[in-house]
Every structure is written in structure tokens, then in C-alpha cells.
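Researcher: I'm preparing a figure for a lab meeting and need a structural model of a single chain. I don't have an experimental structure, so a prediction will have to do for now. The sequence is pasted below. Please return the structure as C-alpha cells so I can convert it later.
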Amino acid sequence: MPLPTLLFLAFASGLAAALGARAELRVSPRPAMLTKSFGSYMLFAGLVLVPVSAYFYVFHGDWFLLYLVDVRRVPSALALLGFLLEAGVGAAGFSAGAVLVRSQRETIGGALTGLAVLGALAVVVVARERLRVVGSYAQFEGGFGLDPYGSGALWQGTAVMTALLLVGLGWLLARLHIGSRRA
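Model: Understood. Here is the structure written out cell by cell.
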């Protein structure tokens, strides 16, 4: 998964988490960022979402950045800030979702979640020429030695990381929905 796709998914997952925690968000007088549901979402972001991004950055960095930047030239502190930004995008999604839940506009929240997921898929469509090949930044710029996407470790890593992301998000949403109803 390239970086723009994961940013869209971070926002969508934050929105979905707020929708899943609607029962707690409606009755709690606390700011959304101080609820247990938000803490649970940030655990998901820190233990699942950001590590998935880190995997792609570390092992397939040039592809992850759509060959726009040579990953070897990106300072590690800037990469760390990028991962924190990704968690912040998810937190912004949760915050937006909480506002929509508290104002009883959950349909809009669901529509925004769907649009964010469509945005994630649109990145793959728009950047398909860059994503079809695997190699280094120099190989992509020089047009030599590139492998097709489906022939190696990147495809397997994408399948495993996507599965981990979906299972983690499904578990989070189920727990938020069930847990907030009990409270």
C-alpha cells in the first residue's frame, strides 16, 4: 500500500471508529479526544496502522513513496514525523466522526468514510503505472531492472499487511460497538 492510500485509510478508520463508538460518544460529556474509544483507536493506530506503514517504508520505501522521492535521502526524523502525521490524520478522522455522531449526522459520517475508502482506491488507479513495477528509485528513474508487482515479496507483504489491517480494524470496530453499548 502506498503512502497516500494509507493516509486515506487512516482518516476512514478514524471516522469508522467514531461511528462504532457512537453509544459512548453520545452520552459522554468529555471531549472526544478524552474518551476510552479514542484511546482504543489510538492503540489501533499505534499498534497496527503505523507499523503497517513502517513495514512498507522500510522494506519497499521507494515504491511506498510512489518513486517520487529517493527513500535513502529522506532523514529518519522526517520519516518519524510522517508516521506521527499518519496517526494524526486518523485522530482527525475520529474527531470529525465524533462531531458528526454527537450532532446525529451519522449518515454523513458513513458517506465520508466511504469517500475516504474510495480515495484510497483512487490512488491505486491514478498511480497504477508507478505501482505496477517494483525496484529502487534509481531503477524507476532510469527505466531498468524493474520487476512486475505480482512476482515477489512486495505482493506477499501487501497481502499480509492488508489482512492484518482489516482484521485489526474489524476487531477494533466490533469491540468499540459492543463495549460502548455496555457502558
